[in-house]
């Protein structure tokens, strides 16, 4: 028995050939074959753009028949199929949609199911199975359907597991899970979902490369651009030598460099990260003595040191804040946290009680009252 055609948009091979012949002869724009409307879905994974362009058939047949439960393994057969036309013979995969090639486009190199795939546009094909599917990325992205599929043009093949899903009348591609470094692309149709894991493992390096380019344009004409780029590298612990240069430019570049607490703190942190502790100490001392070092700014720096487990340094910063700004809010909050971090809960409690009286709003007061209770019970605050 001849295999069923996996090309769900046409009812017979003759219709396909007739349409293809007409397409060659005509230059006007006609409705899509089988009324399978074109669709496209895109998603950014950080700087990486992923798009799928496809034609979308529905569960209802061309004569209005309900094909629910008859799509997989019947209309779209399991395994390879013989389409009765073209050059792929008995080894034709499914086009993963209708009409022309379904295409997968990615702007940067990524990993698909843990396997590398270079930036580019690919013809997307699939080999359905009862328990697992093969997803094919073909270097040929311009063919009609799978008629002329050639395994030699494969860029990548990966195995995935299908799973049940809510009923989907129209074949649809959807990004079902999205994170800064990864996403899940899923084909959904009838009551089946085919998930595909996509990942960008070098996302931080991509951002650094983009920042490097940005700094040669308008972003490089303000100290903020250099500061932001340097601080990104610092937070992510990458590209630290070049980030130090960027931080220096934020402080001292002719016409645009600016010394303030933010730029000096970033410079000090990068000097320390690059092993120059002496310069780092001098720079942070300058930052803490700068007019932009407000009580809140110094407090936030102390909190940052606490998150880095540099408790003694944090306490020294909170003490400096008290020396410079005395009873100004949130000086006592910082002293409470600093003394608590080094184990002096008695002194921490004294400053917590003072901080409660200074609280600028109900929310801060309520939080501080809870901390007072913890300290009285002999428990440190975090």
Number of domains as seen in the coordinates: 2
Radius of gyration, CA atoms, in whole angstroms: 31 Å
Total strands: 10
Q: Work out the strand percent.
A: 15-25%
Helical fraction equals: 25-40%
Structural class, from secondary structure content?
A: alpha+beta
Question: Numbering strands along the chain, what is their spatial order in the largest sheet?
Answer: 1-2-3-6-7-8
Give a quick account of the main beta sheet: strands, pairing sense, barrel closure.
Answer: 6 strands, antiparallel
> Kindly, what is the distance between the CA atoms of the first and last residues, rounded to a whole number of angstroms?
73 Å
The low-pLDDT segments are 1-19
Which of globular, elongated, flat, extended, rod-shaped describes the shape? elongated
Average predicted confidence as pLDDT:
92
Q: Give me the strand/helix succession.
A: HEEEEEEEEEEHHHHHHHHHH
Helical segment tally?
11
Care to describe what's here?
- The structure is a single chain.
- The protein is an alpha+beta fold and 382 residues long.
- The chain has helices spanning 13-25, 203-214, 223-236, 240-252, 261-273, 277-288, 295-307, 311-325, 331-341, 345-358, 362-376, and strands at 38-45, 48-55, 98-106, 110-112, 115-117, 120-127, 133-138, 154-160, 163-178, 182-199.
- The strands form 2 sheets. Strands 1-2-3-6-7-8 form a 6-stranded antiparallel beta sheet, with no helix packed on it.
- It has 2 domains: 13-199, no CATH class; 203-376, Alpha Horseshoe (Serine Threonine Protein Phosphatase 5, Tetratricopeptide repeat).
- A hairpin with a 3-residue loop joins strand 9 (163-178) and strand 10 (182-199).
- The protein is built from 11 helices and 10 strands.
- Helix 5 (261-273) runs antiparallel to helix 6 (277-288).
- 38% of the residues lie in helices and 23% in strands.
């Amino acid at each position: 028995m001849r295999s069923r055609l996996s090309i769900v948009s046409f009812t017979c091979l003759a219709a396909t050939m007739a349409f293809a012949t007409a397409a060659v002869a005509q230059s006007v724009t006609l409705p899509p074959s089988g009324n399978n409307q074109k669709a496209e879905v895109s998603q950014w994974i950080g700087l990486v753009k992923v798009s799928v362009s496809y034609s979308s058939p529905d569960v209802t047949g061309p004569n209005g028949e309900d094909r629910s439960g008859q799509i997989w393994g019947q209309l779209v057969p399991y395994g390879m199929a013989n389409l009765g036309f073209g050059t792929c013979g008995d080894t034709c995969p499914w086009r993963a949609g209708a009409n022309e090639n379904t295409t997968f486009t990615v702007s940067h190199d990524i990993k698909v199911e843990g396997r590398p795939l270079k930036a580019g546009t690919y013809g997307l094909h699939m080999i359905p199975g009862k328990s697992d599917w093969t997803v094919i990325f073909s270097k040929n992205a311009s063919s009609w359907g799978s008629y002329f599929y050639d395994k030699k043009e494969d860029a990548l093949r990966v195995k995935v597991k299908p799973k049940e899903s809510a009923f989907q009348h129209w074949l649809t591609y959807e990004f079902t899970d999205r994170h800064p470094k990864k996403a899940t692309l899923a084909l959904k149709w009838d009551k089946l979902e085919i998930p595909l894991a996509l990942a960008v493992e070098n996302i931080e390096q991509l951002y650094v490369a983009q920042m490097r380019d940005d700094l040669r344009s308008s972003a490089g004409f303000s100290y903020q651009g250099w500061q932001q780029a340097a601080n990104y590298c610092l937070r992510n612990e990458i590209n630290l030598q070049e980030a130090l240069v960027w931080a220096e430019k934020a402080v001292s570049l002719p016409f645009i460099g600016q010394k303030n607490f933010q730029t000096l703190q970033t410079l000090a942190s990068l000097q320390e990260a690059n092993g120059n502790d002496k310069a780092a100490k001098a720079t942070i001392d300058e930052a803490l003595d700068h007019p932009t070092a407000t009580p809140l700014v110094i407090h936030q720096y102390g909190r940052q040191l606490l998150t880095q487990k540099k408790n003694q340094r944090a306490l020294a910063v909170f003490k400096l804040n008290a020396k410079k700004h005395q009873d100004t809010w949130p000086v006592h909050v910082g002293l409470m946290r600093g003394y608590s971090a080094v184990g002096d809960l008695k002194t921490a409690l004294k400053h917590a009680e003072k901080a409660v009286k200074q609280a600028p709003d109900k929310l801060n007061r309520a939080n501080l009252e809870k901390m007072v209770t913890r300290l009285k019970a002999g428990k440190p605050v975090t």
